[in-house]
Amino acid sequence: MIIKNIGQLVGIVPEGVLRKEGEEQGKTEVLENAWLSIKDGRIAAFGPMATCPKMAGQAGHDAIPSHNVIPSDEGIAGQDVIPGDDRESLDATGGMLMPGFCDSHTHIVYAGNRSGEFLDKINGLSYEEIAARGGGILNSSDLLNKTSEDELYRQSLSRVQEMMDKGTVAMEIKSGYGLCPEGEMKMLRVIRRIKETVPAAVRSTFLGAHAVGRGYTHEEYVQTIIDMLPQAASLADFVDVFCDEGFFTVEDTERILRAAKGLLTPKIHANELAVSGGVQVGVKYGALSVDHLERTTDAEIEALRGSATMPTMLPGSSFFLGLPYGRAKDYIKAGLGVALASDYNPGSSPSGDMRFVMAQGCIKMRLTPVEAFNAVTLNSAYAMGLSHEYGSVTVGKKAALILTQPGWDLTKLAYEYQTPFIRKVIF
Ligand code: NIG
Ligand code: FE
Q1: Among the bound ligands, the one closest to the CA of 137
Q2: Nearest CA to ligand 1 atom 1
Q3: How far is the CA of 424 from the centre of ligand 1 (A)?
Q4: Using CA atoms, how far apart are residues 157 and 296, in angstroms rounded to an integer?
Q5: How confident is the model at residue 102 (pLDDT cuts 50, 70, 90)?
């Protein structure tokens, strides 16, 4: 397939660049008036319209090799199309073509909702107060354990569909509402089933340590999680711990991560409710990401320097819970990269709209549109170990792209943050 008359082809990244850090986060290569070809589900080549391969039966230029055109194995770039070739052509009519959104932090497998707590929240109760009254994560856990696996799959799949319609092409999904071995394994099986059904890429995280399950003491529950790790590792890609005040301590986290070594790579919930030490313990155990970071001091920024860990911020939960927004700008100034993700879940961020996440990155965290764009594409793909396949326009990567209506660019995307912009999501 060839997409031509692309107004702006954005997010072009050379092969081998797996994340954008520091000043690089503020840069992206844009090609105006471009074409792009797709072969076997991957980006095969692209270039300016002046070099667009001629399609059978259509007016076009003879292909002129350009520096942007990297020939694929099949040699699509730089060749005329032979009559009878079955490649389709799609006229972008000046629309922007960009990598699809990558959402490295979600909890979209859940049952029912927590709209009752929404009223408590409106009436002034904090996230911690709702949790202390037996609501919050435990409320979702009760509902999940009462819901059949098929029904859970059905409810979760509708959220995945909604996310894909909004341009998300790769997502991470966590367990963490089972809070007992059966419930957690049920969630991980549902995530696997989603992975097998949808065109988006799905990564799975075992978040048994999300809250202490009902009927366990704190110590019994931490031991239960540790005992579950080998079984969870048969289905999950990552392990997560809610390392925060009132949930799990740095010592608990350290015990779990030590036991998970060689089984599952960590991704850690840290510094949402307090300066928790979660960032430091995550970095120590080689976490792929540390997430939330609403409350951080310079010590967290220092701990992350030179590490392979991606700081990930979740503006949707700052918005919904009225928490401070993460200091993304300071992280970037310190030479780090930042990813943004939705945190889609029933308690702190009931939305998986990554375009809104990008807009909040600009409006609330003062990221430039390009910094926010890199945060919701390449860096978020990195934060789930997928940036070799997703998150940029790079020859050989998956053709997981958003084609917009005519006239869009990255600034307008964040600025007119509610105007519908998607023409087609390409998987
Ligand atoms: O990332 N903070 C912990 N976990 C989720 C919220 C889960 C819930 O409230 O159901 C989060 O915000
Ligand atoms: Fe979360």
Answers
A1: 1
A2: 343
A3: 31
A4: 34
A5: very high
Check if 174 has its Cβ closer than 6 Å to any atom of ligand 1. Answer: no
Q: What is the distance between the alpha carbons of residues 272 and 269, in angstroms, rounded to a whole number?
A: 8
Q: Is the CB of 343 under 6 A from ligand 1?
A: yes
CA of 132 to the centre of ligand 2 (A): 18
**Per-residue pLDDT band at 58 (split at 50, 70, 90):** low
Which of 109, 120, 137, 240 to mutate for ligand 1's pocket (most ligand atoms within 8 Å of CB)?
Answer: 137
CATH 2.30.40.10 at 2-99+393-426, yes or no: yes
pLDDT at 83 over 60: no
pLDDT tier, 47 (very low <50, low <70, confident <90, very high otherwise):
very high
CATH 3.20.70.20 fits 101-382, yes or no: no
Q: Enumerate the domain spans of the chain.
A: 2-99+393-426, 101-382
pLDDT at 66 exceeding the cut of 70: no
Give 414 Cα–ligand 1 centroid separation in angstroms. 25
Whose atoms come closest to the Cα of 267: which ligand? 2
In the chain, what is the greatest distance between 2 CA atoms, to the nearest angstrom? 72
Closest CA to 346 of 185, 209, 194, 144: 144
pLDDT in tens, 118-136: 999 999 999 999 998 888 9
Rounded distance from Cα 343 to ligand 2 centre (Å): 5
Q: Where are the alpha helices (DSSP H) in 43-201?
A: 115-122, 127-132, 137-146, 149-165, 181-197
**What is residue 67's predicted lDDT score, i.e. its pLDDT?**
37
Indicate the SS3 state at residue 263. coil
For ligand 1, atom 7, name the residue with the nearest CA: 347
The per-residue pLDDT for 71 is 37
- Cα 21 to middle of ligand 2, angstroms: 23
Percent of the chain, pLDDT > 70?
Answer: 92
Q: What is the pLDDT of residue 54?
A: 78
39, exposed or middle or buried, with CB in 10 Å at 0-12, 13-18, 19+?
Answer: middle
Tell how far the Cα of 402 is from the centroid of ligand 2, in angstroms: 26
Q: Which among 35, 100, 69 has a CA at the least distance from the CA of 378? A: 100
Atom 9 (ligand 1) nearest CA? 347
Instruction: For the chain, give the mean pLDDT.
Output: 93
